[in-house]
Predict the structure.
Amino acid sequence: MTQVISNVEYSILRALGTDADFLYDTVDSYIKDAQDSNRSDLVELWQTIKQDRQKHANMLKEALEKEIHKQ
């Protein structure tokens, strides 16, 4: 039986999916909650985390592209 994707590709996809869920479904509501509570410190914290996760998602995307083109 031939694998559809390698274990490495699967790991990258899972991590990318986790970051995507956080970026598109979660973090903006955390930022809004902090804004609604007048917590600029938390707004800044969540925005920093969001930027970091966007960077990580881009790194994972690039790693996946390399894996796909490697074959």
